Amino acid sequence: MQINKSVKCDDFSCLDVNKEGYVIPNVETEPERITILMISEAPPEDPSDYFCTTNDSFYLQTTVQAFNDAGLHVSSITDILDLGVYITTTVKCVKTGYSISPETIEKCSKILEREIALFPNVKAFLLMGDTAIKAMNYMAKRNIGKRLIPSGPTYKIRRNEYFYKYIKVFPSYLQTGKSYLIEKSKRRMIAEDIKAALQYVSIKR
Length: 205
Prior knowledge:
Blueprint: E1 17-18, E2 36-40, H1 58-69, H2 77-82, E3 85-89, E4 94-95, H3 102-116, E5 124-128, H4 130-144, H5 154-157, E6 162-164, E7 167-172, H6 184-204
Parallel strand pairs: 2-3, 2-5, 5-7
Antiparallel strand pairs: 1-4, 6-7
Helix pairs in contact: 1-6, 3-4
């Protein structure tokens, strides 16, 4: 299945994004083999830096580094997919400011929810950063009547256990962007969360 042919935005009404940078992963994958969804923030300003363009893309380089920090030996998006991990973004258009409005995140969480529904065997979500965490809370409010992840610094809330329906949720930090290269404590926690998610799904198989 090619995901970007199965999910799309029908609205494009958000005011704080650049719709010219709209993208949904165009990777070819077998949804049944995916057990972890890694949900990041938004596409890069330069489309060549997206996850599934080339092995030299910036988003993929930092993501590969995060998996290598977790003890996995990967070098490409194919290697990551082979681990049963599918990577996407919460917001499908390039953001125009530093942050993304709650209104945009809520709208995009509905697209994300349709994207998630394509993967029947997912056992864990890796929420990479505040935008993904907020989107998960919007989905939870719609489907189980309450937010899932409490407010607070990520380094504190990540220590607790969360489940969205039957899927375990790991709140973490953003693994893309230049800040990833310099914030060593966040890199360590990201690696820990990736490793924990993979260990969890291996137990649940």
